[in-house]
Write a structure and sequence with these properties.
Helix content is about 25%, strand content about 20%. It has helices spanning about 50-65, 90-100, 110-115, 150-165, and strands spanning about 5, 20, 25-30, 40-45, 70-75, 105, 120, 125-130, 135, 175-180. The strands form 3 sheets. The chain has a 5-stranded mixed β-sheet with strand order 6-5-4-8-9.
């Protein structure tokens, strides 16, 4: 389990466009979230121990914040030829098991991950209503084998966005498994 840090895309960056299928073939695009007050784009996968560590709390975060106007979408950009467990069947099982209430999309070409400069799973990005990046980084300080996930960092950023108080600029990178890039 090699830990990789997120690249910390520059704050204020516009959300790169995407149009991707979910594990069941339903297509979702960035524009589908145009009415949301905020949007979390999470790069995750089914097999990563860092994602497994936060998945239940991340699902709870989504259930708590979607009614407040924060939309959530997860994207799996791993090479599914090399990691078949991250393919549509594994994604479906993960979404069902974790209770995901948000689209879980497959970025088979990896173009979307590259556009977001995603580096690891989980890699989390929070955009405001104008789809400008206001937060990128860790879910919280917990790690597999170290602490219980709370989502404190992402929750604090989302609360600041919703309250209009300004998201703090001091943000810690996410740490997780590297995205499994195609060769």
């Amino acid at each position: 389990m090699a830990a990789t840090q997120s690249t910390m895309l520059e704050l204020g960056t516009a959300a790169p466009d995407f149009r991707l299928p979910s594990f069941d073939g339903k297509v979702t695009a960035l524009d589908d979230f145009r009415d949301a007050r905020g949007l979390v784009v999470a790069f995750i996968c089914s097999h990563c121990p860092f994602v497994k560590h936060i998945r239940d709390e991340f699902a709870r975060f989504a259930r708590d914040y979607q009614p407040k106007g924060i939309a959530v979408v997860a994207i799996n950009s791993n090479d599914i030829q090399a990691y078949p467990a991250d393919g549509p069947a594994g994604m479906s099982a993960e979404a069902s098991s974790a209770g995901y209430t948000f689209p879980y999309l497959l970025d088979e070409t990896q173009a979307v991950a590259k556009a977001y400069r995603a580096a690891c799973t989980p890699d989390l990005f929070l955009f405001d209503a104008q789809r400008k990046l206001v937060y990128r980084g860790q879910f919280d300080d917990s790690r597999p084998g170290k602490g219980s996930p709370t989502g404190a960092d992402l929750r604090a950023a989302s609360d600041a966005l919703l309250n209009g108080t300004g998201v703090p600029k001091d943000q810690k990178p996410s740490i997780g498994c590297n995205i499994k890039w195609k060769k």
